[in-house]
Amino acid sequence: MRTRHLLIAGLALLVSCGGTSSDTGLDATVGSIAVQDDGKIVVGGGFTTPASSLARFGPDGRPDKAFNANVGATFDSSVYAVAVQSDGKIVVGGYFSTPAQSLARFNLDGTPDEAFNLNVGTNFAGGIMSIDVLSDGRIVVGGQITAPSRSLAHVNADGTMDTTFNTVVGESFDLPVESVVVLDDGSYVIGGTFTTPSPSLARVSADGVFDQGFADNVAGSVSGFVSTIEHQRDGIIIGGQFTSPANSIARFDLDGRPDEAFNATYQADAGALIEDYVEKVAILDDDSILVGGWFTEPAPSLMHLSAEGELEPLPEQPAFDAAVLSVDGHGESIIVAGAFTVPARHLLILDF
After folding, report:
1. What is the rounded distance in angstroms from the CA atom of residue 305 to the CA atom of residue 294?
2. The domain at 29-331 falls in which architecture?
3. Residue pLDDT, tens place only, 57-97
4. Among candidate residues 123, 252, 128, the one with its CA nearest the CA of residue 192
5. DSSP state, residue 233
6. Which of 18, 138, 201, 288 is most buried, with most CB under 10 Å away?
7. Could you tell me the CA-to-CA distances from 322 to 47, 247, 293, 339 in Å, in that order?
8. C-alpha count within 13 angstroms, C-beta hemisphere, residue 130
9. Low-confidence residues of the chain, pLDDT below 70?
């Protein structure tokens, strides 16, 4: 295992291996992260400084003052999801009503994309908790929405609604979608608190058609809700609050069959220790898994699993005082964000 050291964003102190630090200015919870190609970190949450609900930081954790000034007080409520397009524009979702209802886009400099936001307008009813940008520029969103379709919807690249996809989805989901992952064939695996069209975990085609074969293979094996999904090699990793097919983390094949070998390894090594639930997983370049959540065991709020599900403790485990809500990786760094104020205020960078 490679030697790791911590680069703390949010504390004015030096840590092991020569790590540097800076003051992020974040005054409240960060719930979502997206990392740009240049390593800059875009965060969304419920904070009011260094900007309201959306801010950007350099790879070293220093606030991007120009970007943050342009965002300013644009939002009137929290941001729950952030995604970066291939052109660098930033798409955000939440429960806000300005600069558009629940979904908005910003330019590279942090100014609102007025044309896109005008097209979104008030088409959404409810909050958006998950965003993914497709290769053709369209955007798939999940959340606690009732319009333009329930819980899952498509938006065109210009911010207009994809009425064909949304009509097919219709009222298929009875409760919120919390996470959506796009597979290589353009289909989606979806997790949430829903019970229909299948409990907690479902797959739909690129056109929005429910995949009954996938649901039959899952066969109701998830005993609880799914808050996060990521694509790993020829399978998917899910996290949330459930007790089977393993506790709070599980792996499935792309056809929906539980990966019995992974799930057994993980359960024996780490799953039996988790006393609360998982909020977010991220797949690193080596296919290992970073896990954040509300748990205190087997490590406080953050743990690292091998690609096969074995617990791999971080050599310098941060002593978080509250939950890790989002994790991401970029090059030689891992970015962690959440409700914690120790060992940093809401944003921390693990530098490999």
Report:
1. 17
2. 7 Propeller (2.130)
3. 999 899 999 999 999 999 999 999 999 999 999 999 999 99
4. 128
5. T
6. 201
7. 16, 20, 9, 6
8. 28
9. 1-22, 352
